[in-house]
Structure formats: structure tokens, C-alpha cells
Design a protein that fits this description.
The chain has about 200 residues and is an alpha+beta fold. It has two domains: about 70 residues, Glutaredoxin (3-Layer(aba) Sandwich), CATH 3.40.30.10; about 120 residues, Up-down Bundle (Glutathione S-transferase Yfyf (Class Pi), Chain A, domain 2). It has nine helices and four strands; from the N terminus they run βαβαββααααααα. It has a four-stranded mixed sheet with strand order 2-1-3-4, with helices on one face. A hairpin with a 2-residue loop joins β3 and β4. It is globular. The two termini are about 25 Å apart.
């Protein structure tokens, strides 16, 4: 299997973390986003959405990070991070969708304003957009912080795809200036995530 990624993409990182945690052998292919490789015809044949990650499993091409995470689990015998029981799996799915629809985009908004725009030479941050992003993060991170009260993991009593998914964008806490450092339950959980081998082995150089 080949997994197209970029080390600084948190969407890609959650998929790579899943592969590392499961011990699924994948060959990592770096897509140079700064040079626009994701918009060139060879990559667009893999993903017309011009985004990473993309998984190529012997000609079966799959994009969207959460779909890739789920697929990797379905190919890994005896995995425990994506439960088989209906309600337990639905609980994990709930948080995956929450991350994809709400939390991830809010983080991306602040990351764009505080870091990526300057990196690409697209001007300074927009105060209105920063205010909107900070409001979203305070609301959403507050929901997660309240949910984690008295819990070690987001779903059930063990690590799941929900944890891997939601931890990934929090890697941008400092450069995106996410207003989450005062949230005790979230920070306790995030420290646990940073201690995982899968987190350490996928940290950008």
C-alpha cells in the first residue's frame, strides 16, 4: 500500500498514525504541497480534490482521511481502535464526523490566518476571521473538554480512531494559536496522546 501524504498535513497525519499504530505496512509518498504537486495531473488522477492523504492499495484508490483510517482498520486483524459492535462503532463514527465537519475546519481556519497565509505570501491575518475561528474553537474545544471529564479516552475505555483523529489537528495548537491551553481535561488527554508511539513516530522533522 502507498499512502500519499505531507508531514505538516494533520489530515494526512491521522491516517499515517493509524497505519503506524496498527502496524500496517505502508509506503509513504510525500506530496510537495508548497510546490503545488497536489494540483498536477498525476496527483489529480488519484484525488481530483487535490488534497492529501490518498491511499493506493494495489489500484484501489481511496481519499478522505477518515475513510482511510477505517479501511486500514478493516484490513488489520485483531485491531481494537475501531470496534465491531454497532453502538461502539457508531460512537466512534460520531466523533470522526464531528472532527471532519466542525473541529478540523475550525482549526484549519486559524492555522490559515496565523501561519499558512504568511508562508505562502498571501498577506497578513484577517482579524474578523481570527475572531470567528477563536469563537468556534472555544465552543468546540469546550464540548470536547466537558466530554473528557473523568475519561481517559474519547470513546469507551481504550484508544480509538476518535482519539487519533481529533488529536491530529491539535498538533497545530502553537502555530494556529488555538485557545485551548486552559482546558484541563483536554490537555490531560492530549498529553496522553503525545505519549503514544504512533504520535512520536509521525512527528514532523
Amino acid at each position: 500500500m502507498r499512502l500519499y501524504h505531507h508531514p505538516l498535513s494533520t489530515n494526512a497525519r491521522r491516517a499515517v498514525m493509524t497505519a503506524v499504530h496498527l502496524g500496517v505496512p505502508v509506503s509513504l509518498v510525500t506530496v510537495d504541497l508548497a510546490k503545488g504537486e497536489q494540483r498536477q495531473p498525476p496527483f489529480l488522477k488519484l484525488n481530483p480534490n487535490h488534497k492529501v492523504p490518498v491511499l493506493d492499495d494495489d489500484g484501489f484508490v481511496l481519499w478522505e482521511s477518515h475513510a482511510i483510517m477505517q479501511y486500514l482498520c478493516d484490513t488489520a486483524p485483531r485491531q481494537t481502535v475501531y470496534p465491531a459492535a454497532n453502538r461502539a462503532r457508531a460512537d466512534v463514527n460520531r466523533w470522526l464526523f464531528w472532527c471532519a465537519q466542525h473541529f478540523g475546519p475550525a482549526v484549519e481556519l486559524l492555522n490559515w490566518e496565523h501561519w499558512i497565509k504568511e508562508l505562502l505570501g498571501l498577506g497578513g491575518p484577517d482579524p474578523a476571521e481570527i475572531g470567528r475561528g477563536e469563537g468556534l474553537i472555544r465552543e468546540l474545544a469546550g464540548i470536547l473538554d466537558a466530554h473528557l471529564a473523568g475519561r481517559d479516552w474519547i470513546c469507551g475505555d481504550a484508544l480509538s480512531l476518535a482519539d487519533l483523529s481529533i488529536a491530529a489537528p491539535l498538533a497545530d495548537t502553537e502555530r494556529a494559536r488555538l485557545p485551548v491551553t486552559a482546558l484541563g481535561n483536554l490537555q490531560r488527554w492530549f498529553a496522553r496522546m503525545r505519549g503514544l508511539d504512533a504520535w512520536k513516530k509521525t512527528a514532523p522533522a
